[in-house]
Amino acid sequence: MTDGILGKAATMEIPIHGNGEAGQLPEDDGLEQDLQQVMVSGPNLNETSIVSGGYGGSGDGLIPTGKQFSYAGWEVRVEPQRHLICLREAGVRELGPLGSGRHPSHSTTPAGPGDEVARGIAGEKFDIVKKWGINTYKCTKQLLSERFGRGSRTVDLELELQIELLRETKRKYESVLQLGRALTAHLYSLLQTQHALGDAFADLSQKSPELQEEFGYNAETQKLLCKNGETLLGAVNFFVSSINTLVTKTMEDTLMTVKQYEAARLEYDAYRTDLEELSLGPRDAGTRGRLESAQATFQAHRDKYEKLRGDVAIKLKFLEENKIKVMHKQLLLFHNAVSAYFAGNQKQLEQTLQQFNIKLRPPGAEKPSWLEEQ
User: Fold this and answer.
1) Tens digits of per-residue pLDDT, 21-35?
2) Could you report the per-residue pLDDT of 156-168, keeping only the tens digit for each?
3) Eight-class DSSP state of 81
4) Strand, helix or coil for residue 221
5) 3-state secondary structure of 84
6) Which residues contact 245 (CB under 8 A, 6 or more apart)?
7) CA atoms within a 13 Å half-sphere pointing along the CA-CB vector of 254
8) What are the phi and psi torsion angles at 43 (to 5°)?
9) The domain 29-357 is classified under which CATH number: 1.10.10.10, 1.20.1270.60, 3.40.190.290, 2.40.10.170?
10) Which residues contact 16 (CB under 8 A, 6 or more apart)?
11) Closest CA relative to residue 234, chosen from 324, 339, 349
């Protein structure tokens, strides 16, 4: 029954007679019956919000006097002095008495600040996806054109040669790194074998009196070789660690910039081709606007390409200087350590480690923290 009320108006005033009964409302008999039921039985306590006072009056019904309460989604205010019952739909501003010509609107509630922010974020995400889709399409088209020999590409011959040389150098250094790790593993296995062999000779020298001296000599020799081998292993580990840093961090960082440069080059050529196609087309009002937009986009990608090209050139120069400095030190270390080890020169081997500030960890010691390594 309340649906009929909601369908009529959001705000209305209904006159009441002195006996507390609602006046006739020709537009909706159901409204009058609902109001009479409220006045007779009182509003539902579960839906009532009494502002002040209680219920009073005489006769068969109970009418709230000067009170405001809620009923079936409506805010009800009784004004006995004016002989009126004012109804207002919850959440809708009061527009005036029924029949005044000011009809309430049942449109949705205006969006709040939160809704506006949500719509703004959604719009920004849509624009980002749209731009990404257009850019991906143009770059894919340019890439396929280059692969099939139909499109032109911008080439910096000197820079391209340096980049290719860097990639080739990185592959060779990775091979050296792999071999160095294999040498480290073999040296470690050799040390374990020599250590076990020395212990076996020492044990046999105690249990074989007739061969005690011979077993003792060999036990001391294996222990000395084991000690020198640990020194050599420390030097080789330092060599491998430095090569690993050079390959996986320094060179890789430069190649990441190279990848960004190549992506910028592809975008630059894609938008350059798009601008050239628009320039060859007819010139009208619509085309002129598109041409100006394409020119601005092309210039932005050109600036990005030029910047990254300069960054790559600078990083390649610094990388070459750093590589020469690091490898000069590491190759000298590797040569001196290996030569001293196989010559049996323990003193020179120890001096080599001191020269390059290499500290050996005792067997079973934990790896130092990264703060101690700084």
Assistant:
1) 444 444 445 545 554
2) 899 999 999 999 9
3) T
4) helix
5) strand
6) none
7) 26
8) -70, 155
9) 1.20.1270.60
10) 22, 23, 63, 78, 80, 83, 84, 85
11) 349
